[in-house]
Model the fold of this input.
Amino acid sequence: MRMRLSTRLLVSHLAVAAVGTAVAYLTIRGLVPHLFGQRMGRMAGGGESGGAGPGTGPGGGVGLRMREVLLPALDTSLLIGLLAGTAVAAVLAILVTRRVLRPLDAVREATRRIAAGTYEGGVPLPAEAELAALATDVNTLAHTLSDTESRRTQLLGDVAHEMRTPLTALDGYVEGMIDGVFTADADTLTALSEELRRLHRLADDLSGLSRAAEQRLDLHLQDTDLADLARRASERLRPQFDDAHVALVVDARAALPVDADPDRVVQVLTNLLGNALLATADGGTVTVTARRNGPRAEITVADSGVGLAAEDVERVFERFYRVRDHPRRSGGSGVGLTIARGIARGHGGDLTAASPGPGAGAVFTLALPLSGT
Done:
């Protein structure tokens, strides 16, 4: 059976004290008689002209008697010192063990709370640097898990909210058809099909969001010209810009070789262009620019639309976040930018946003490493 840590610490302290005392005892016991004899011999030699040893001159008998008295007294003193040292070592070992184990007990209690789902109440930081580092790590773990749980709860609420609208519409149509309010004609079935497509799109978005969050995106990398992808994505969506009376300007002439998945990159660019169109009113402009920036290739999508407040620049990448006051209503689920950033980071790049403020437009930048860098 393995001993507890407190017992091992106590035994280790006592062992160190016992070994130290034993070494001191053997050293003193071995040296004192020899040194005592030498000193007494010198004293006897100095007192007698013949240089007699400690047992032959007048001082020799005195030396022997002193030796007979000294050694037992020395043994008794050493034994008492051994016992006293061991007792003091035991007391100190208990105090030190309690001081060391008290923070560890607090860490154990905190881990039990965390395992039970309670993340509040951090571990107090002890004075010892190593134990304080351990307590800090546990507190960081609790904070991270609490944040993850909050995000999970929020995600469930957001998903329920997103599903509620199409399900309510489907339920209304079906009940109306049962009650005879609606007929199963082409218009009604088309409306039902549209709501079902919204649910299917939400399921696909959630699946993509999960893969992006867990970095499980399927990327088929190949040598690709990022500027060409930007041109192709822009031209494919140009009819929508023309219908909305929004000018689409593309400046992507210089080749930008990257090692990327073309389909995934086009997915990101399509999302950026679609969001820019939604944010821009009639008569506005969306500009797509391809350029080199050091070891990276960058595609910027700038619009003259509603813009972003400073506190919303990062929030646009959160799940289900939507900017208010869009000129056009989006039919998406609000996770497109979250997935797009996951795709960009999966390529070793990033997707960022910037805006001078509300009403001043926004700029989204897709940055990917250039090939060979």
User: Anything to note?
Assistant: The chain has three domains: 5-118, 130-213, 222-369. Confidence is low (pLDDT under 50) at residues 47-59. The helical segments are 5-47, 58-115, 129-179, 186-213, 226-243, 262-279, 336-346.
